[in-house]
Write a structure and sequence with these properties.
Radius of gyration: 28 Å
Strand content: 35-45%
Structural class: alpha+beta
Shape: elongated
Helix content: 10-25%
Order of helices and strands: HEEEEEEEEEEEEEEEHH
Oligomer: single chain
Largest sheet: 13 strands, antiparallel
């Protein structure tokens, strides 16, 4: 009798699991105003009752003129991309792998050619639901010194971390760049300066002189032509904020 009771119990559990799955699946579909099923029966491209994209999506862009088509897959949360998104060409080769938060690039993003990885980027997203945010801007002439600046948040991502550029065919690193919240970690690298210790006052003055000297011939000619003339007010494009 025990084997028979065990069999009946197993059948009852199976029926309960199937019923629960059907109810859960119906509830998921009920949350979508529109959606579609994949070839594997997976629910995709859900538009909820508030017309927001939710859950797993596959988006296809057809070729147009000289632009090749591509396909992207990942997840949406309340109409914003969230987590890992992959991009493929129409032959199935990976073109990029990007991470998102609040619909913005956040974390590591990798980009590929047919030969291999071309570059790896690092991003930090600012919460678009905040009207203002604070970012740290590195001092131009002193390592390890930062100034906190309050900026109007227009919903964007900051370059933050190490960027690496590769030769796709060999995998060799061509160059690297480092950023801290959208600013170069060493802004003076443009002048060939590589340092780990703060610069002396003399060195700072020298670098400022070199920066001022980096003028085009056109600027120098204009300054020479207008030397001694009365200065006039010129708008510099700033908004005053």
């Amino acid at each position: 009798m025990k084997p028979q009771n065990t069999s009946i119990r197993n059948i009852s559990q199976l029926v309960l699991i199937l019923f629960t799955g059907m109810v859960f699946g119906a509830d998921v579909n009920a949350q979508c105003k529109t959606s579609k099923l994949s070839d594997q029966g997976e629910n995709l491209n859900c538009i909820d009752m508030k017309n927001r994209k939710q859950g797993k999506w596959v988006e296809r862009t057809q070729p147009l003129r000289s632009n090749p088509g591509f396909e992207e897959e990942g997840e949406y949360l309340n109409d914003r991309r969230e987590g890992l998104w992959k991009k493929f060409n129409l032959q199935g080769d990976v073109l990029s792998m990007e991470n998102y938060k609040w619909g913005l690039l956040n974390g590591i993003s990798q980009y590929f050619t047919i030969d291999g990885m071309e570059r790896q980027e690092s991003w930090k997203a600012l919460d678009p639901d905040k009207e203002y945010d604070t970012i740290d801007v590195p001092d131009l002439y002193q390592d390890g010194v930062y100034k906190s600046v309050i900026v109007k948040n227009e919903g964007y991502s900051l370059k933050h971390g190490k960027w690496t550029f590769y030769d796709p065919r060999t995998g060799f690193i061509l160059k690297t760049e480092s950023y801290i919240r959208d600013s170069s970690e060493n802004p003076l690298a443009l002048f060939g300066v590589r340092r780990k210790q703060p610069l002396s006052d003399t060195a700072v003055a020298s670098l400022k002189k070199r920066a001022l000297a980096a003028k085009t011939d056109e600027i120098k000619a204009w300054e020479k032509k207008n030397a001694g003339k009365k200065k006039v007010a010129v708008r510099d494009g700033s908004t005053g904020y």
